[in-house]
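ok new one. same drill as before - structure tokens go in, u give me an amino acid for every spot. 407 of them this time. try not to just spam alanines like last time pls lmao
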């Protein structure tokens, strides 16, 4: 059976697929291979993990989460899914600062692409990384920790530096979240009160089809002491799926019922298919201050966007210092598009959006469908780090060569 990504639009086509069950086996595979890519849980929508040579999955490494209460961290195998780690942490009275919309993704894979949730004060998931342990090109085990000069380059790595076998993440005391959904936010209010809306709760998401004079849904995930403000939108009278016509069975509990952080921060439950299930995704990041301009730019392309769109989501993410992070030194608004699963029809629309958002210096999500990424500000530093860790580009592939070319 052909191995594909979650969306089914990318076949991995590797000559060999390795599923090591120990770190020593990972080191052996890497040392003996000419070209290697690592596969996480396969939730990316482009050819980021594709290689004609050796593909390594670290999903079979022992999970072994270890909490260091004094340091406020947990160390865990890179292939573990967020949902699994979250349940473990919560049972021990700990939490992560944020989660993506789905708990199904592997930690190392999500971190490698700068995957994020929402929250004006919350950095992407990679910002919780305090240390990484990776098997580099010669089969050596290298540990990098926050504070090391190379560390900011090694976290959002696009899998181009080595196989991440262990990740150390910051933890917090477990906390409760209440999730509220509002419907039909007047479109004019989004522009007029953007800053208030973006900062209206611990985590804020808006879902829109970019048509009509309302935004379909406003989701607020509130921490202790925060009260919901719908900004003139109506409280939802039933549990909602971001695509209103779909069954909300897969969605985490709403209606303001307090619950553990890991059962409210993701939109979707671990035991169900997330999102629509038949889709492609694209996401662009611009400065949070440029959000209103970015909304207008998308709406000018409404005639192209809406025929291939299932739903869009607007989120906010705090700036960080990670070299290849899409939020590098920029508080960001994330404009997400869940498309129909039709590459040929979606591709030109993505190109049109890239052109329209280029004046705002939009950056793409590394794990989603895009054509062109502007040169990351710290690319030279990243390439120098790669030259040190992987001089022969063992961990390269077509995606990396295309988007991280020196010039
Ligand atoms: C339904 C759905 C919802 C999504 N929601 C969100 C969201 O809310 N926010 C968001 O930002 N993104 C979201 N995404 C995108 C997703 O988070 C990213 O594509 C993420 O990279 C997926 O993690 P993965 O483990 O599947 O990585 P993969 O797609 O398997 O791999 C991604 C990259 O990570 C590298 N990698 C994986 N494991 C390792 C390792 N152990 N060592 C070194 N490199 C490794 C791979 O080589 C590759 O370069 C969503 C995707 C889907 C399908």
């Amino acid at each position: 059976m052909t191995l594909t990504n979650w969306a089914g639009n990318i076949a991995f086509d590797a000559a060999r697929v390795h599923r090591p069950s120990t770190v020593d086996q990972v080191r052996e595979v890497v040392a003996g291979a000419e070209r290697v890519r690592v596969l996480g849980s396969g939730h990316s929508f482009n050819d980021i993990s594709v290689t004609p040579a050796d593909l390594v999955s670290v999903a079979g490494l022992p999970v072994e989460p270890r909490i260091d209460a004094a340091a406020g961290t947990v160390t865990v195998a890179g292939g573990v899914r967020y949902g699994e780690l979250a349940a473990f942490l919560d049972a021990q009275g700990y939490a992560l600062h944020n989660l993506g919309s789905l708990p199904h993704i592997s930690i190392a894979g999500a971190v490698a692409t700068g995957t994020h949730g929402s929250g004006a004060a919350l950095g992407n998931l990679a910002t919780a990384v305090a240390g990484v342990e990776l098997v580099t090109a010669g089969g050596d085990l290298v540990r990098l920790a926050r504070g090391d000069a190379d560390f900011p380059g090694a976290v959002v790595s696009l899998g181009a530096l080595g196989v991440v076998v262990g990740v150390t993440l910051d933890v917090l005391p477990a906390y409760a979240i209440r999730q509220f959904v509002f419907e039909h936010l007047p479109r004019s209010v989004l522009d007029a009160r953007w800053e208030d809306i973006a900062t209206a709760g611990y985590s804020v998401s808006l879902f829109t089809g970019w048509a009509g004079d309302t935004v379909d849904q406003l989701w607020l995930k509130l921490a202790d002491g925060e009260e919901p403000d719908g900004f003139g939108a109506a409280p939802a009278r039933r549990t909602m799926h971001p695509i209103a016509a779909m069954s909300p069975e897969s969605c985490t509990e709403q209606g303001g019922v307090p619950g553990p952080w890991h059962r409210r921060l993701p939109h979707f439950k671990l035991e169900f298919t997330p999102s629509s299930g038949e889709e492609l995704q694209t996401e662009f990041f611009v400065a949070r201050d440029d959000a209103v301009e970015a909304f207008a730019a998308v709406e000018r392309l409404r005639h192209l966007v809406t025929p291939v769109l299932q739903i869009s989501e607007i989120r906010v993410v705090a700036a960080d210092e990670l070299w290849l992070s899409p939020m590098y030194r920029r508080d960001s608004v994330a404009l997400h598009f869940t498309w129909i699963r039709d590459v040929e029809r979606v591709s030109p629309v993505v190109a049109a959006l890239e052109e329209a958002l280029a004046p705002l210096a939009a950056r793409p999500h590394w794990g989603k469908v895009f054509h062109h990424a502007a040169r990351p500000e710290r690319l030279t530093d990243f390439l120098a780090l790669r030259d040190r860790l992987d001089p022969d580009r063992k961990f390269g592939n077509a995606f990396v060569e295309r988007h991280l070319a020196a010039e």
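The pocket of flavin-adenine dinucleotide is lined by residues 6, 37-44, 48-49, 58, 78-79, 100-102, 105-106, 108-110, 112-113, 115-116, 158-159, 163-164, 274-275, 281, 365, 367 (CB under 6 Å). and btw The chain is about 20% helix and 25% strand.
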